[in-house]
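Please produce the structure of this protein holding guanosine-5'-diphosphate-alpha-D-mannose.
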Amino acid sequence: MLIEMPRHTEIFGSVKIHELQRVLKLDSGGFENPRAKDISFGEIKAVLEHLAIIIPIKDEKIHLLDGVLRAIPFDCTVIVVSNSERDAHDIYRMEKDVITNIHNLTQQEILSIHQKDPELGFAFYEAGYDCLLDRDGLVRDGKSEGMITGMLLAKSLGKDFIGFADADNYVPGSVREYVIDYAAGFCMSESPYSMVRLHWRYKPKVVEDRLYFKKWGRVSETTNKYLNLLLSTCTGFETGVVITGNAGEHALTTKLADIMSYSTGYSVEPYHFVYLFDEFGLKAEKIAYSDALTAGIEIFQIETLNPHLHEEKGEEHIKNMLLGSLCTVYHSELCNDYVRSKVLEELGDILDAWERPPENIMMPPIGVIDASKFTKLLKSNSETFVMHEQGSIEDEAKEEEYLKGESFQAV
Ligand code: GDD
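Below is the modeled complex.
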């Protein structure tokens, strides 16, 4: 891959945020120039072998999951954490069928679990991590809660890198690129504590019967503005460096995943920045992770070559995502009265139901959890946990079906 070098890096305490880097060529020929870095496929493959891709999913079209699964490079392990319906329609069963079929056809390592599995709740409880449980001892709804589950499974497999891919992507080729972009980011990183966040080149929408290649999503533009304002008011120098505040498509080293705190639901991504600014920024008061402080935390922001075409979830969803995102800024330890007043102005009517921006639920770092013990518990007790290892066809009846040529079709 040939990728632009960052033109500028904003340094805030131990946090280094690299400016946007464009993918110049997905497959390149080893030609380096001062403005671009060439990363060979061999280097990328070496990262992929240590990378797990987590797919959080909730009631998405099964065709979309099928495409996403097929797009993820074979060398990665895939972990599907589903919060899909199991009552009227057992959507999780359909997801499991698709996963088993793809595993049987490809032999790729794929794990899956249902977020509401009581044994998953119990495993978190046993691990002393009950901050994501509801009153019934089940894991709460929420994308972030699914992501944490996936990260623990990835840790138990000894993975060094963890990435995320949404399940509602209409273009499998773009998912493949995202994973390669993650790997490229890690190849460039100089710190074991690093994160790669993707910025889509375009997010196409249908406007008056025509495709319009929009550059910015409504929520992300606003989230970026306030994360930048937070940073600018702290340093005294205006910046626009943050352009991936809501990057659902992101990846991080397991070392960094271990020391991050996580915010609930969709506020998880903007909170990455807020947490890093609070804990490792210029004004950080306590030194909790001295290794990371010394090594520095690197954030890469890569603009993809492919556009992002995904399922639209409606106005209410957008409002909730904006509220969750801006609340992370409002409650940052670094937020001053001026930024708070601007956030309140921005939220306007969305805040009607609250007197002040509600605080998101925070979940502490997962580094303290014994991930092997956690997964062992699931292996022996969970009804929904499935672990398809590389190179094993578990379902003999299905194998016979394939050998006869009756290939699977997503319905
Ligand atoms: N396991 C699990 N549990 N997955 C969930 C849950 C849940 O409770 N809720 C949603 N998901 C899955 C969805 O099925 C999808 O695969 C992914 O999480 C993202 O959810 P969407 O509802 O599709 O979000 P979006 O497309 O509006 O927003 C995405 O992009 C934003 C940036 O533009 C998300 O990734 C956001 O987090 C991101 O900020």
